[in-house]
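Recap from last week: sequence in, structure out.
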Amino acid sequence: MASPLLFSTIEVTRQAFYRTALSYAIVNLKPIVPGHVLVVPTRPVPRLTDLTTPELTSLIVSVQSVGRVIERAYGGDALTVACQDGKAAGQSIPHVHFHLLPRKYHGDFFSQKMDDIYPALEQSETSLPRDFHNLKSPNSIIHHHALKVDADEDRLPRTLEEMEKEATWLRGFFTEGKESHDPNAV
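Predicted structure tokens:
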């Protein structure tokens, strides 16, 4: 059995849908757009400069592989890829991670003002430690909420079950650690 995955000190194995020896991808607790995921190095370090060359290489290759799949799975036309490298940059969990957000020319909450996604991302990152802490309470697991995305201020953190369901679905796009190239897989 594979070892548990930690996002800083938070166990996120159930949210994972992609994994290599040095990196992994998880679904997001409070996605800004459908398909908003995180790609994370396995070793918890706060800054990109703390990664070894093999870790950084694995992380970027994982960003590329996961990005290719989520763009296709969510019908995106492009991706926003963002990394808040350090607390002063808006990083709230002291573990390097990349946000991958599928984007659309039409039908995307941000399609009229593409750059508005960055303040929404920063605001979302600010509440992450509190939301992960609250996820551990029994009440958050019992209550299910309709998925709210597109930077809706009232969107609530998802339950573990909701995130696990999405992770299981996304895991199906990967075979033996490589993304599926079957165009009918979606």
